[in-house]
Amino acid sequence: MAFIGLQRSAVACVRMLGGMMSRNPRRRPRTWSSTRRKECRTGLMLETLESRIALAASPMSGLGGLAHADMSTPYTQARLARIEKLASAAYAWALPAEFMYRFANYNELVTAPVNTLAYSQVPAAWNNAATNAGDSSVLYINGELNLTRGALVYTTPPTNADYEVTQIFDNFINVVSDPGTRTAPSNSATSYLLVGPNSPFSHRKSVRLDGFTFPVIALDTNRGEMLVRLLADTLAPGGSPTSVQNTYNNLATQFTLNTLKQFQANGNKPVDPSTYDQMTPTAEQLQQAQKWQNTPTNAVAFFEQVGRSLRLNPLPTRATGIGGTPLSIVPAYMAPQANARRVYFAPSAGQQTTLALFRPIGLTAKGFHIPKGWGPAELNALQLGFEEGENQIQQKLDNPPTSATNYWSYINHDFGTYPNTPAGYQYRAVGVIAGGFPNLPIDGLYAPIFTNSGAHTPLNGNNTYEITFTLPQAGYSSYPVTGIEPPLALNSGGSPIGFWSLTLYQPDSTEAAAPFLSQASVLNTAYSTATTPVVSINASTNTITVPASNVGPLVESTAIMFGAGAGAYGLKSNTPYYIASTPVMNGGNYTFEISTQWKQSLSSNGVPIQYSGQPENLVTLSTPLSANTPLDYGVIQPVSQLGSTQIEDGRLQPNNGSVAGFPAGSYTIWLSPTLPAGVAPTNWIPTPSTAYLQSIYGDSVALSTTIEPMIRMYDAQPGDMPPSILPLPPGGNYPQGLPSSYLFPLLVQAS
Fold this sequence. Notes:
Strand content: 15-25%
Number of helices: 12
CATH superfamily of the domain at 114-278 and 320-350: Domain of unknown function DUF1254
Number of strands: 33
């Protein structure tokens, strides 16, 4: 009976509002109060939302029955249910905008000022700020962009010699442009004019200014993010031509970001930054940055950040930039809207209709405000819907896949740029919590795994797992092809353009910067050497003095190890120690204390938080250095990833065929708390076990040992050249429902 009453009330509202909009004054009702008219408008708006946003099999659907502002119990329940459903849908849609706003505020306090590049001299590791699923097999350069201040000039070095890709993201984490080895091959440097949507050059593909021709990259929002990924052999010795330091010195420093005025004043040439070092934040800046580290847990605070983000970044339209241009003449480095076939539109264009649906909960292009007349019940519904949205997106990320993908989760289409649909908005939100800035799959495909095959139990660092990659064969008679090395695109010489790697993380749903790289990665010293002589040991100050390392900078928390002479000084060789104080530099030497442990901060889930903590158990250095007993040291290169780069340089050891299930010539990577018997240490990624974590944190706190392995492929083989991880081309003799003609091998728990 209540449902029938709601229907009749809605019909009455339709008739009333129809009369109010009529040109015939005789049809306009005179007996309805302004309050009653407002209530009807609210109810109809929510009813319209129900029909527009409730799509089949979508977590954003199910807005319930009709809404009404009448405060009797049925109406109240329906109204609060709608607020809850709207808030849930709004969370999924708005999370990227909130993330971009918060991430920019954080980085401008601790990383680099806006419109400048932050150059990383070290790969992502457990003790640096490369969070959000930082990739330890590349070097990063990133920058926060604000194009309301004028045009910028972005200069890249030649792209043919080394793999590189620049992802330029808008305010909704859509990839707007991706100049690099795949899209813009060149033997010479290129200077792009980087402009915002309101620039007079945003409708141009190129422009000639002051005698210099620029290719144009136009963002579709005022602000965005630039993220450069450079292939570097992050486990190579410091002296290797492909080492991190040489890649940094010879390649990374050739990327520059200038204002147009700076570039032109320098004779149309890039201007190097005054320093390549990242900023050192003050204690006050670190304190301010804490506000921006995590997504707010309060719905009002979250939507307020979304509102500010939207005010700063008006939604693009289909006319923004070069919208409407045939794809055949659009530069390859400009990413069109998802699923574009013939015409380019900016990736985030066309969301105004969706945003309008959230007006009843106070979210509009002008910002967010709590609707007039709301009380505790409405705010509670908003909070419940917000939390429901969080849970739905987390479940979508964690949703266990099936044997069809060997239980790996990956999306090989509609990622990086997202359809403006409920499913597309969910993918965007998943992208945020999965790592923040996903590539286009063709540039870089990410595949995490969360559960132990069909058992659907979380992977645990106390266990031992193995994954075996066999060598590709000439010709395949059936698909999918499973288990070979991930197939990559090849250059004209037949060599892979990109690379692949397997990285180990610890997930944590309570931390926006998760998943985190694990400190346990320092337990494998097989890729590290202690060959640099220690300068001195000062027993009175309990410090050690060493020369600079060619592996990376020496900072507090850097893991180091000592060579064969360590025992004479009460130290252990090939064992991790940590720089326990800020190194004091004198000439080319560094002086500091050391500790046996580094104790990170723990999240509420018991996960050690990357780039946090303090030293524990300072080492007493009571014996001065003796000329008769030299002591060597070296920086530990953490093993949190292994892949094709280690195969190419010959350090990842192939199987010899003597053990069943491990064919000759195949490569097995082991994930285990300790080195498995008979396994080459160069094939081992250490996992965080209970024993390891309790040795640092004790047994009085809850500790998480859940792990998340992730395979990355950069520049995958095209889908029309099987086997490929990318989507299958139309037609072809493939099994129905196959996500790709190549599947990653099973991750197997060893007995």
